[in-house]
Structure formats: C-alpha cells, structure tokens
Amino acid sequence: MPGWADMIHTALQGWWARERGADGRWTAAPEHTWMGAVEVELDPADDHDLWAKRGSGNLASTGVGLTADLFSRSELGSCELYLEFLLPVESRSGVWLLGQYEIELADTSEEGEDELTDQSCGGIEGNPPLAQAALPAGEWQALALTFHAPRFDDDGRKLSNARFERVVLNDVLIHEDVVCARQSRGAIVDHEVPRGPLRLQGDQGPVAFRDIRMKTIFE
C-alpha cells in the first residue's frame, strides 16, 4: 500500500524488548520470551496459551506470557496504524502509541454492550469502546486507527493534545475524536512527547501480532 511501512521484518528485527525496573526505569530485557514466528494459533492442548512455529511474519509470546514489552526501534508521531492480533482465553495486552497512549487488547468478546469499560478490548483510558466489536479468543482480530500526536512549540509548551481521530476494531468504529489530555497510566515516561516507539505489551498473558503497518501523517 502506497505510503505504508511494514514494521515486522525478519523475526524480531526492528524491535527490542524492555522492562521497567523497581526504580521505574526501562532497561533491556535479554531474558524475554518474545519470538519471531511463521505461524501462530490457539494451542489445541490449552486454550489459555498460543502455539507458535519459529520463523518470520509474526511476533509471539507464548507460555505464561508474563514477559517484557516490545518497543519498535523506529519512532512514530502522528500516524495511521494497522495491525492484527491474537489472544488466547482470558489473556490481555495493549498497543501503546508513542509508548504513551494505550489501546487495550483483551479477551472480552462475551461482554454485553452495556458492560463495556475502558478495560474492554479496544478501550482507551476513560473511554469504553462505542460498540462490542471483539472476536472470541483464538481468532485473529484487526485494529486500524488514525492518531494525532500532541504538538509543542519551540519552548516545549503544548499546543494541542494527543487525539485518536478514529479507531476501528474488526471493521467496527469503536472510537471517534477521543482527546487525551495526558498520557495513559503506565506510560514509558512521565511527561508527554511528540514522538516515540510503538509499544506492544507483554506482561499480561500470551499474545501474537502480525501485519503491523504504519503510515506517517505530516502535520
């Protein structure tokens, strides 16, 4: 697709695993359990886990799934993002724009429309998804969004807040014009920034990602 950049190359090339220490600093995590995989599916012997075959094309964390987060080596600003993800039963993850603004990924397809919260699949802090669009555990799901990074003047004063213009989960619009006046809880730094990595959360259960593509928005 013109203007789109693939973010998954060979195995984990283009990504690094990092974890937050007791002092709050993010450091390299050489003992992480992420791997490049050519194939990933729900484990037929355990629906709370994923089965993966090593190779390229997918990023996967299997087993207990309590591992480091993945950070893209390239930095993003305002952008369009598309990715597909896979969760087993009762697992959870998150996609963090600039490492700061989170969209929840969770096995919550059985929640009713009136039960949705910002912790439901597709939730943004303080903003439940507009509709129940999550698929059952074990199915690949598609997330597409348009995100505008916060803007600052030359002296560092904020001119505009971060904003999710649109978020679409499995072809269903779940957010429109969500303004983020501050970073999400658990952000990688304690202040807002105009650029940062794409961060894939790995400490809340097994998860896999594929077909991650980004297109820069020039503002």
Keywords:
219 residues; mainly beta; Jelly Rolls; 8-stranded antiparallel β-sheet; 6-stranded antiparallel β-sheet; 0% helix; 48% strand; globular
For the record, the count of structural domains works out to 1
Q: Mean pLDDT, nearest integer?
A: 96
Classify the fold: give the CATH topology. Answer: Jelly Rolls
CATH architecture descriptor: Sandwich
Number of helices, counting only DSSP H or I runs of 4 residues or more: 0
SSE order: EEEEEEEEEEEEEEEE
Describe the global form.
globular
Report on the structure:
- The chain has strands at residues 5-6, 15-20, 26-28, 34-42, 50-61, 69-76, 79-86, 92-97, 101-106, 141-148, 151-152, 158-160, 162-169, 172-180, 196-200, 207-216.
- By secondary structure, it is mainly β.
- The chain has one domain: Jelly Rolls.
- Strands 1, 4, 5, 7, 10, 13, 14 and 16 form an 8-stranded antiparallel beta sheet that branches. Strands 3-2-6-15-8-9 form a 6-stranded antiparallel beta sheet, with no helix packed on it.
- The mean pLDDT is 96.
Summarize the structure.
With 219 residues, the chain is mainly β.
Mind sketching the topology for me?
Layout: E1 5-6, E2 15-20, E3 26-28, E4 34-42, E5 50-61, E6 69-76, E7 79-86, E8 92-97, E9 101-106, E10 141-148, E11 151-152, E12 158-160, E13 162-169, E14 172-180, E15 196-200, E16 207-216
Antiparallel strand pairs: 1-16, 2-3, 2-6, 4-5, 5-16, 6-15, 7-10, 7-16, 8-9, 8-15, 10-13, 11-12, 13-14
